Amino acid sequence: RNSFFQLLYLMLVSTFHSAIIYDGLAILRLHDPHSYHLPIPLIICSINVLTFLIASYSNPGIITQKNVKYHLSFYKFDSVIFRRGDVCSTCKFMKPARSKHCKITDRCIYKFDHYCVWIGNAIGGNNHRYFLLLLFTLAVM
Ligand SMILES: [Zn+2]
Predict the structure, then answer these.
(1) Stretch 116-141: mean pLDDT, rounded?
(2) Average pLDDT over every residue of 81-103
(3) What Gene Ontology cellular-component terms does the record carry (predicted)?
(4) Are residue 17 and residue 5 in the same domain, yes or no?
(5) For the chain, how big is the Rg over CA atoms in Å?
(6) How far apart are CA 79 and CA 132, in angstroms?
(7) How many Å apart are CA 42 and CA 14, to the nearest integer?
(8) From the CA of 103, how far away is ligand 1's center (Å)?
(9) Which domain range does residue 100 map to?
(10) Is 88 a catalytic residue?
(11) Could you give the 3-state DSSP secondary structure of residue 38?
């Protein structure tokens, strides 16, 4: 793991969002100086950066020897994809349903989705909502 893509994301977002906000606010002020729309781009950009930081540095749902029993109770084993008794060959404990071993972070992740190079973290059950909010605010911007 390195921070190259995280820094690149923050640089791209800050550069382009600053330009858009600067130009957009100038146009909005020109047409309607008392517009209530003025703080909206700043709020959305702030939420975007905040969710980026939370998704990047939060625990995605790492399963450890201590919390594996807690995660085993979340989802039922369907005996098709997730079979009771499957053991992670790396972590050496029983894999909870809907969990997967992330090869990049080298940890079993609860509700593993993928490893995102842009946030430099795995997307799992604990940070999935922040990642989706990050994508939503990015699309809105
Ligand atoms: Zn594992």
Answers:
(1) 95
(2) 92
(3) membrane
(4) yes
(5) 20
(6) 29
(7) 11
(8) 9
(9) 61-111
(10) no
(11) coil
